[in-house]
Amino acid sequence: MINPKIEKALNEQVEKETYSSHLYLAMASWAETEGLKGVAEWMYAQADEERIHQLKFIKYINERGGKAKISAIKTPPVSFKSVKVVFAEVYKHEQYITASINDLVALCVAEKDYTTNNWLQWFVTEQIEEEASVSDIIDRLKIMGDHNLYMFDRDIMVMRAAAAAANAQGA
Ligand code: OFO
């Protein structure tokens, strides 16, 4: 049976992963209406990944004898100032999620829940990748500048397709 403190913290993470998915969906929709197809595809795919994270937490809580809670999620912003602002927001958000995963790990160690700690290590690794890929995109944006958004958008579309192909091969 899962420790109630851990169950509560994992349920808070369900909420955070759900908000991540909502936020990226909002960014995808905004980019689509701005004609930025590459950014939109990247964000839609990212929203799907966050939904998988959300499900992983839900299923783990239930599997360990707890009860996953599905709560109302705050509305993400509808529009954004620029692509640069969007990716800066994504980076900030992922750093927040990384800190949250680290807090979960620390709680598991304090509560001697080594099973959940072990299970969480997948997310620890995932966060390294998430932060690195966004940081890479921010660097590209800096190099290309605002006047080269068309190129950037195509570039990010190619990046996403390559990542999807690599994932499909690994599956
Ligand atoms: Fe779920 O990793 Fe991003 O937020």
Hetero ligands: hydroxy diiron-OXO moiety
CATH topology name, in short, is Ferritin
Overall 3D form: elongated
Beta-strand proportion: under 5%
CATH architecture heading:
Up-down Bundle
**CATH classification class:** Mainly Alpha
Summarize the helix and strand pattern as letters.
HHHHH
Count the E strands. Answer: 0
Question: What features would you describe in this structure?
Answer:
It is built from 5 helices and no strands. It has 171 residues and is mostly helical. It has one domain: Up-down Bundle (Ferritin), CATH 1.20.1260.10. The chain starts with a helix and ends with a helix. The model has no long low-confidence stretch (mean pLDDT 95). Bound molecules: hydroxy diiron-OXO moiety. The site of hydroxy diiron-OXO moiety (OFO) has 7 residues, from helix 1, helix 2 and helix 3.
